[in-house]
């Protein structure tokens, strides 16, 4: 692992410069007393071009069941802070070899209100990709390398709404998943920071599917 990686491809230059000062929306302002956690935003270059690694949490979990996510979790005492936690979780959840990842930067801390965690996103360049798969079927249902071009495609973007009428924010259809909630909010900021964002119709609003609403109600 190398801090501030020098091996990053040119397409990550803008993100590398902009991400550490990414604006924090008011709803994600860290709250006192929240537990520390970290996630890994892992960029790679696959057969379909630049991509980012996402997982889908198992439907059997009691928190955030069935939701797409970045690999991540709580920062344990034995971790080397957010970086160590993000890399450890990516290994445990998706089989990402830490030795093949160069750390680009850490992003501003964000507050995840449902689970009362303050989350530090850690951005990494997948210098030496490893084979990935769900590390524990009871926790992770799916691991996918999602092309950035698919995330940026206006045809794959929408705003989701709870059936009660409350708008839940931006979402993406990519990697065989409906990506919404915290992960979609972060991805929206990532696209802007990297210069990959394209105009899209935020007025295209759809209700969250019933099965997604049922799983989310466990939180």
Automatic annotation (TrEMBL):
Residues 33-174 form the Nudix hydrolase domain. One of its GO terms (molecular function) is coenzyme A diphosphatase activity. It comes from the Bacteria. Its cofactor is Mg(2+); Mn(2+). InterPro entries: CoAse, NUDIX_hydrolase-like_dom_sf, NUDIX_hydrolase_dom. It holds the Pfam family NUDIX. Keywords: Hydrolase, Magnesium, Manganese, Metal-binding. This is NUDIX hydrolase. It comes from Actinomadura verrucosospora. The lineage of its organism: Bacteria, Bacillati, Actinomycetota, Actinomycetes, Streptosporangiales.
